[in-house]
Give the backbone structure.
Amino acid sequence: MSAKAEKLAIQIRSLSDMEKLQLVDSILADLDQPDPEIDRAWAQEAHRRWKAYKAGRLKTVSYRAVMEKYSRS
């Protein structure tokens, strides 16, 4: 971590939990910027998968099967 980041980390430790949450929200909002290239790629992939599904070329899994698989611990 850079000296500047380390200094910020020390200052952050003195904040209240609410202030820390607000800071995290602010940082995440700053980082969460749309990327048109990624959006385009996902749109193409979604279209490709939808066409495959409609044509019967895509195996599907029921909601129940997915929930059973991931609810086991």
About this structure: The mean pLDDT is 94. The CA atoms of residues 61 and 67 lie 10 Å apart.
